[in-house]
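Backbones bend. Our protein:
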Amino acid sequence: MQKRRRTYPRQEYLEKREELHRLVNQQHRLQLTPEEHNIKGETNQAPIIYLDGKDGAKFDKLNRTQFDCREIKLINPTQPAISLKFSTRHKYQIDRNPQSKVIREHLIELIYELQEALEKNSDDALAQQNLALLMKVNRNPGSYELAMSNYFRYYYYTYVNYRYADGQGYSTGNTHLIASSIKEDDEQNEPEDRFLRYNVIFVDVAGISRPRPANDHARTETYLNEFEHRFDVGKRDLFIKVKKRFRK
């Protein structure tokens, strides 16, 4: 179940958002590149600001647990990343057994639209075929297998997977990035609503700046990065992860 987002009185929200935006701009921004830092994957032009993990504590009163901001996403203020990996996912929902009431509402609406279209152009053969089909389904829905999905709307989201030191070893976090959706020509939005959205990623400056592995070591690093936990045991590290057959 998707968690419901918190709501605020409009003026309170705008003031908090401005306070958060101002705080971000007061910090020194870092310039990171895949060539010089431990970053992999494509950000797909997602708007990202990189800040030093040492500044994360300054956001304690405005992080996501305190202020649910829609336009500024603080990714990891308490977990500065030593590596970042970006990826793109096709997100969709599919309902293989939609409620009959919902289906009936959609069927009636579609039938009405097709009837209107045929009144304007009675020779539209495709509209005639679709109308005949929908009326059959509406009369006897139990004879048809129905599903609802937004799969072919092709909603793609950029995700970031990050590793960070947790005091005992290393852990990973994963979340999606928000995209910039400003629409300057949208007359329905108030000026203060036309806000350029962005993400803030906090990094461990020393950890993320380490040299990238040579090509002949890449396979070993990929394998070790699959482990969920890492512990220092002297001259070597102990890597631990749950075997696939025991994962829930």
